[in-house]
Structures are given as structure tokens and as C-alpha cells.
Amino acid sequence: MGSDVLLLNTPAIEIWPGGLLHARSNHDARLLARATQVLRRKRDGRYLAALVPGGLVAMLPNAQREPGFETARITLEQARRPQRVGIERIGELPLSHLRERLDALGLDDGYGARAGLPLVPEPTRLSLAGFDRYRRPLWLLPQAARAWAHLRVAALRDDVVLDAISGYRSHDYQLGIFERKLARGQSVDEILTVNAAPGYSEHHSGRALDIGTPDEPPAEESFERTPAFDWLRRNAAAYGFTMSYPRDNPHGIVYEPWHWCWHDAAAPAA
Ligand SMILES: [Zn+2]
């Protein structure tokens, strides 16, 4: 079990496998149909370039001058070399890009200090763990993707259906939400009452999942009264998943019965 469909991650740009992205114009559609990989700007999801049999084709004017384009191009080139035998270690991206962007937005790290939370690095690659409730690709750290697959199968055996509300989220995605709200005149403090501070979410690690069950609204406290939640409380730990934000957690984060995080130490040999 597990998937070989990988997302290659760089600080500013994601390298998506072909076949998963929707075209936004006829021109895009023709390119995406032939693309084996697509370079996508994390900040706003824009497609920058497509790798087609003839080479890398720009999808935005001056795509090559985008910050981080060269890093992404080199990452793509390295990934296309023949794979070495054995398990490739999945590393973490440096936090320097995040720190620069937090500074530029005027978001200091007072939030982390107050909440007792560290900045969470992004992994260098993620694995397709199926699709979420909204039919969007669900990306997780490869080991977490396997654990999620096993967890769902085990739940089904007990007639419990688990679905994913969301998995991996990049720093830039979260920063993009802040940028757009700041541009509309909201203050950082106002935004923080609704959106998590970029950089501090477990979702950045590719280990965290918001879990739901059919006919239940996403990310609501009422999830704790479902058979799905009861099943998770009894069984999730055996698959390496724990609830990160129980009631009265020390981080001052609201109770999130839907948010579960995979930790390798507890993982079963599956
Ligand atoms: Zn969550």
C-alpha cells in the first residue's frame, strides 16, 4: 500500500506530477495534457511551467525570473536522474524562506513564543494519499500516507468511514491567505483570530490530517460525538496517530477533535 505519486517540494515552488491539475485556459489545457510535471507557485497556486517531451515550457510570462525558479528547475532535473537503489531519506526544507516572508509581512515570532510552538519545516517531498472530501489531491509525508491508508482500512472493517478534510498545507499557502487579507485592510491580530499563524501549523509537516466522516460538517466540535471519533480515540494510536489539541491543551489552541498527527515512534510495522 502507499503511492508512488510524489510532489517535489522547494521553498517557493511545488513540482506536481502531471494529470492532477485542472486547466484554467485552453492554452493551459493543451500543455497540461502532455505535461509529466508542472511547476506551481505556492503563494497563489499559479502554474509557472510545464515539463513536456520537448522540455520545460513557461506558462507565465518571465516565469524563469520567478523567485525560486532555478532551485525548482534543479530539483526537477535531479529527480529525473535514475533512482539509486534503497530508501531515499526525506529531508526538510530550510526555514529561511519562511522567516524572510514572515518579516516582510510584519509577523514576528511572538506568536510562537506565546503559544509554546516551534516553526514547523516542510518536507522535501510528499506522497499522494488519495483525495480529500472535496476531491482535491491529499498530500502527506510518505510514511504518514501509508499509515492513513492502513487506518482507513482498519476503520472500514469496523464499519466506520473516515474521510480527509485536509492534509499538507505549505507555509506559502498560509502566508498567501494573510497577504490577501492584509491587502483588504485587516490587521494581523484580526486575521490571527480566524487563521493559524503561518509556519506554526502541524499541517506544514505533512504529518497532520483533519479527519471527518460522511454527513458531518468539517472541523466542528460535534465530530467528538460521532462513532468515527470514538473509533479514532480507541484505535488511532496503534497506527501512529494522536490528537494534537485535546481540551485545555498547553498551547491555548481551541479543542480540535478532528486534528490528528502521525508520529513515527508509535508507527506499527505494517
Ligand atoms: Zn488540522
Descriptive terms for the model:
270 residues, alpha+beta, four-stranded antiparallel beta sheet, 8 helices, 11 strands, globular, binds zinc ion
Q: What would you call the structural class?
A: alpha+beta
Q: What is the total tally of β strands?
A: 11
Instruction: State the end-to-end distance.
Output: 9 Å
What fraction of residues sit in β-strands? 15-25%
Largest sheet: 7 strands, antiparallel
Topology:
Layout: E1 6-9, E2 13-17, H1 26-34, E3 37-41, E4 47-52, E5 55-58, H2 69-80, H3 96-104, H4 110-115, E6 125-131, E7 137-140, H5 142-157, E8 163-166, H6 171-183, H7 188-192, E9 208-212, H8 227-235, E10 241-243, E11 259-262
Antiparallel strand pairs: 1-2, 1-6, 2-3, 3-4, 4-5, 6-7, 8-9, 9-11, 10-11
Zinc ion binds at residues 203, 208, 210, 259.
Provide a short characterization of the protein structure.
The protein is α+β, with helices and mostly antiparallel strands and 270 residues long. Helices cover 29% and strands 19% of the residues.
